[in-house]
Design a protein that fits this description.
73 residues; mainly alpha; 97% helix
Amino acid sequence: MAAEEVLQTVDHYKAEIERLTKELTETTHEKIQAAEYGLVVLEEKLTLKQQYDELEADYDCLKQELEQLREVS
């Protein structure tokens, strides 16, 4: 009986190790996906910030041109 109990315990631990390994793999994969998504969001934010800065610079130039045209008129 003792040998049978030991084998059951070993089998139980093997199954638990397999379950935990699978869970760790899945969790790691999810973390990697989240990190990749975060990088995409950061890149998108940077692109939008650059576009905003360009639009703001264009706005300032156009505003200055308008003021100059008003002075001439």
